[in-house]
């Protein structure tokens, strides 16, 4: 097993820092709108997971279902980009402050990076 207890502790520490940054971006400036970033980053890996499950029902054909996988990657990319663009749009329109935007984007990227790292470290190995 390549990933152990130290990996789980490190990933949970980074995830806690990400959530702390997003919560502080809302609490310090008394505006709850930067919390929308958490929803986009938590939902972002779901299209990849769902489309990967739906794309290849047959284990014998490796090339089947590339369009579904590409669509899942497109939706994931859209959600990640929305997690970056939404605070920038809110800051540009004057709804939130610039430091809140920076904290929200950094916290959201830490959250998404932790989710992706966790799925990479603890992926099941297929044996044939």
From TrEMBL:
It is found in: Membrane. The keyword Transmembrane helix applies. Keywords: Membrane, Transmembrane, Transmembrane helix. It is a multi-pass membrane protein. The chain crosses the membrane at residues 7-26, 32-50, 71-90, 96-122. The keyword Cell wall biogenesis/degradation does not apply. Belongs to the OB-RGRP/VPS55 family. This is Vacuolar protein sorting-associated protein 55. The lineage of its organism: Eukaryota, Fungi, Dikarya, Ascomycota, Pezizomycotina.
């Amino acid at each position: 097993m390549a990933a152990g207890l130290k990996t789980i502790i490190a990933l949970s520490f980074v995830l806690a820092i990400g959530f702390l940054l997003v919560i502080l971006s809302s609490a310090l400036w008394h505006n709850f709108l930067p919390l929308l970033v958490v929803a986009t980053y938590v939902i972002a890996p779901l299209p990849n997971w769902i489309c990967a499950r739906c794309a290849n029902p047959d284990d014998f054909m490796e090339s089947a279902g590339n369009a579904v996988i590409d669509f899942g990657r497109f939706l994931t990319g859209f959600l990640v980009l929305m997690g970056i663009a939404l605070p920038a749009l809110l800051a540009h329109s004057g709804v939130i402050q610039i430091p809140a935007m920076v904290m929200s984007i950094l916290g959201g990227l830490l959250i998404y990076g932790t989710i992706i790292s966790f799925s990479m470290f603890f992926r099941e190995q297929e044996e044939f």
